[in-house]
Amino acid sequence: MTARGLRNNNPGNIRITKDKWQGLSEKQTDKSFFQFTSMPYGYRALIRTLQNYRNKWGCKTIADFIKRWAPENENNTSGYVTRVCREMQVPSTYVPDVHDKATMCAFAAAISQVENGAPANMEDVRKGWELL
Fold first, then answer.
1. CA 105 to CA 4: how far, in whole Å?
2. On the CB side of 36, how many CA atoms lie within 13 Å of its CA?
3. How far apart are CA 132 and CA 62, in angstroms?
4. Distance from C-alpha of 112 to C-alpha of 129, rounded to nearest angstrom
5. How far apart are CA 71 and CA 77, in angstroms?
6. Measured between alpha carbons, how far is residue 110 from residues 29, 58, 83, 119, 128 in Å?
7. For 83-111, what is each residue's pLDDT tens digit?
């Protein structure tokens, strides 16, 4: 069976909030997670959320971002950090440039890999960046 994040075109499994993301599906049939019209819109939302974590919440390192993204009350956060860092080939203390396309596409792809158990389609990730 296809992972929920892939079915919803929401590779980061972003929970439903009051946010009105670009590219939301007209009908939201999943009661917990946003559904997007295409995968690039899901990646756009993931990347924008990470950028907001820096700008609004002061996240600096990969570990800071993942602690906010995947809180310990819901996840094995330390394992999540380890997996994202392994995918990106960086230490947990790495400070990503949230305005750099290559960095943020790699970060989004790594999160998608952890969330969905399958490699990200990098063309979709790059298209998501272009929608910013």
1. 21
2. 26
3. 21
4. 14
5. 6
6. 26, 21, 8, 8, 14
7. 999 999 999 999 999 999 999 999 999 99
